[in-house]
Amino acid sequence: MPIASAVPRLAVVAAGLLLMAATSTGAGAATPPRTPTPPSGRVTAVTGAADTAAWSPPLSTQGRYIVDGQGDRFRLKGANWDGAQGSWTGTGSPDDPANHHAGQDSHGIPLGLDRVPLDQLLADLYQLGINTIRLPFSNEMIHSTTPVPDEAVAANPRLRGRTPLRVYDAVVEALSDSGFAVILNDHTNTSRWCCGIDGNERWNSAQSTRQWADDWVFMARRYAAVPRVVGADLYNEVRRDVLDDPNWGLGDDHDWYAAAQTAADRILTEADPRLLIVVEGINWTGVPVDGLPHGRPVLTPARTLSHTLVDSHKLVYSAHFYGYTGPRHSGATGIGETHDARYQDLSREQLYAALEDEAFFAEESGRHFTAPVWVSEFGVGAGETNPAARAWFAAFTDYLAGHDADFAFWPLVGHAGHDDWALLRYDGTGHRTGILDADDWRGTAWRHLMSAPSWTGPVAPGPVWRMLSIDHGDAVESVRVRAAGDFDSGARKAVCPDGLRLVGLGHTGGRGLCTDGTAGDLRAGTGGQTVVTDERYVPAGGDWASGYTKLQCPAGGFLIGYGERGERVSAALCVPGRTALGGVGRTVWFDGSDNRPVGSEGGDFASGAYKGQCAADEYAAGIAFTTRLAARPGPAALLCRRLP
User: Fold this and answer.
1) How far apart are CA 435 and CA 410, in angstroms?
2) Comparing C-alpha atoms, which of 487, 636, 613, 643 is closest to residue 561?
3) To which H or E segment does residue 572 belong?
4) Cβ–Cβ < 8 Å for 196, 177
5) Fewer CB atoms < 10 Å away: N or C end of the chain?
6) What helix, strand, coil percent values describe the chain, rounded to 5?
7) What CA–CA distance (Å, rounded) separates 64 from 33?
8) Which pLDDT band holds residue 585 (cuts at 50, 70, 90)?
9) Beta-strand (E) ranges in 484-567?
10) CA 296/CA 393 separation, integer angstroms
11) Residue ranges of E strands in 345-426
12) pLDDT digits (tens, 9 = 90+) for 414-435
């Protein structure tokens, strides 16, 4: 949540990084955004207040779109109601409001409850036209047993005597009852303003990954009966501390990819299977010094390593963009300010190219990484006078409008005279000012964003493509297989999510590709599975990979998973089809080169490795490999058969 008053703090952060490095080492013409792939709905120009009642939870995904419980497109048009994540800046007494962000002591609860009755706040939110609230919290808030002071809820006396979590409960329930979609956001470990070097850099900066995931299970269960709580935004702006970078897939304690995968599957299997899972990219790595590696990876790592959840229609990727940061700029001024361009320094063409490269590529259809992209934070201040910052805001909101993107402004509520970034600001008497007023320069861009034509109506289901990775452990993403126990004890195992079948494998590295393309869910409703570890199901005269060991499914079955010990294939997991399966078979070899269909639906699911893939109108019925001396014992061929 970087905003204007945080820039000096970023300079302090950069100074710390510089010190550690020393200690250890001595606007032009617009380019239109990529046109979205339309659903089978209609284009509608949206005007006026939000129609918050005209949708049905829960939310899911279809390709790049989020859909509601009726299968209709639901565009996240939101804002961040902050405060419950904490506001103390980390210096001076927490009891002095001057030591809180923008002089606003949130008391660890959503801002504004001291000045405005909750019902009036909700009515004002409705006038903005938004339908979604991203509601930050801290892990410290969850466990606090100290009631908030009476002055923190002066305008809402019924909330007196409550702990911060119980106040948060009241806000969640009120938002849901009023028709707003609520996305819970774990913003900080501690109730301290982020986002520099502050003890909140990573999900596990001040706690273990296990405790963090346990807290998520607790929160998801707590609101499982609140119908319009629709999402879990796992962690905010994952970034470097003084010593270490977060990473995407290295398998260590700083692996954000793995941590997000673990928490997501636990939420969906142990707490609330209705929720969208929001995974934000990596916000910052490296030391912000010219000549040293640094930058904002954002979502770029998902191109080669994407998430596959136990529910293939629950993943949403997220990114944050502010004008004073940049593709390689931390946002700092003075110490720690590099010579890299900020986003507000870029032309429209350059800005739009950066947005595509860092985030919106993930909305490309037919790829293993395909998912909606939610810009869950962006913003600018009403008092901003820098022409470059103003031009950036106009260009950025034009992109969001033209791309029909999901978004959430930061922040929603603030104190008048303190935080001019807030959409709505309230003085001590509860009088409101902000973006709804004619003198707020941001209003033109905001109204354009809120009223631009948007796809509405039903979104036709399309094929799903998902990657399997056993780089550092199991990837069993089938709830049904998990319930049946460990099918290949001691091996690294991967299984497609329920409803998908295995269609691709890498020769090395253990990567796989799943889909439901052409035929949907092939699996018989009666259940059952077969673990194949030898050639007993290869029929006489059916040697489709001469000289290789063949793990073939029983007649009528198809592949959904596999096991490997080291590099060697150890098992194939097969399930029976819901209809008679047979079809003409062919052998797809990939131990010496890539062998994928023209167009390569699903994308490069095993980057850097040879790989093979059945066509979209085929299913995989067997895996072949060799144990010959000096040969790689990974998958070498697939038996692909035509779908009936």
Assistant:
1) 13
2) 487
3) strand 568-576
4) no
5) C
6) 25, 25, 50
7) 15
8) very high
9) 492-495, 501-506, 512-515, 530-532, 549-552, 557-565
10) 20
11) 373-377, 406-409, 413-415, 424-426
12) 999 999 999 999 999 999 999 9
**Alpha carbons 405 and 412: distance in angstroms, whole number:** 19
CA distance 132 to 77: 6
What token pair was written down for 503? 């269609």
Tokens of 215: 């807290």
Cis peptide before 58 (omega within 30 of 0): yes
DSSP state of 639: E
Whole-structure pTM value: 0.93
If we measure between CA atoms, which residue out of 557, 434, 448, 362 comes closest to residue 116?
434
**Rounded-to-integer distance, Cα 223 and Cα 213, Å:** 16
- Within 10 angstroms of residue 512's Cβ, the number of other Cβ atoms is 31
Angle CA 172–175–179, to nearest 5: 135
Residue 44 has a pLDDT of 58
Q: What is the pLDDT of residues 347-361, one digit of tens each?
A: 999 999 999 999 999
248/258 Cα distance (integer angstroms): 8
What are the structure tokens assigned to 22, written together?
């020393």
**Distance of alpha carbon 44 from alpha carbon 41, whole angstroms:** 9
The residue among 388, 394, 363, 359 whose CA lies nearest residue 376 is 359
Q: How many other C-beta atoms are found inside a 10 Å radius of the C-beta of residue 461?
A: 15
Dist CA 637 CA 506 (whole Å):
10
pLDDT tens-place string over residues 282-310: 999 999 999 999 999 999 999 999 999 99
CA contacts within 13 A on the Cβ side of 216:
38
State how far the Cα of 424 lies from the Cα of 414, in Å rounded to an integer: 6
Give the separation between CA 562 and CA 624, rounded to whole angstroms: 12
Q: What is the spatial distance between Cα 80 and Cα 127, in angstroms, rounded to a whole number?
A: 15
Cα 280 to Cα 196, 376, 601, distances in angstroms: 17, 9, 25
* Under 8 Å between Cβ of 314 and 231: no
3-state SS assignment for residue 519: coil
For 247, 254, 255, 263, 629, the CA distances from 251, given in Å and listed in that order, are 9, 8, 6, 15, 30
How far is the C-alpha of 120 from the C-alpha of 126, rounded, in Å? 10
CA-wise closest residue to 612 among 525, 545, 520: 545
Looking at the DSSP assignment, which residues form a beta bridge with residue 637?
Answer: 589, 624
Are the C-beta atoms of residues 290 and 80 closer than 8 Å to each other? no
Binned at pLDDT 50, 70 and 90, residue 315 comes out as very high
Which is nearest to 627 in space by CA: 550, 548, 532, 562?
A: 548
Q: Which two tokens stand for residue 506?
A: 């890498």
Positive or negative torsion for Cα 506, 510, 511, 512: positive
Distance (Å) of CA 629 to CA 214, 377, 489, 566, 571 = 47, 55, 26, 15, 20
CB atoms within 10 A of CB 389: 18
Q: Beta-carbon neighbour count of residue 599 at 10 Å? A: 9
What's 267's DSSP letter? Answer: I
CB 567 within 8 A of CB 634: yes
How far apart CA 280 and CA 546 sit, in angstroms, is 47
Sequence-ordered list of residues with C-beta below 8 angstroms from that of 44, at least 6 positions apart, any chain: 453, 454, 455, 456
Retrieve residue 46's tokens.
Answer: 């949206």
Q: What are phi and psi of 352, to 5 degrees?
A: -65, -35
Contacts with 68 (C-beta within 8 Å, 6 or more apart), sequence order:
55, 56, 57, 58, 59, 74
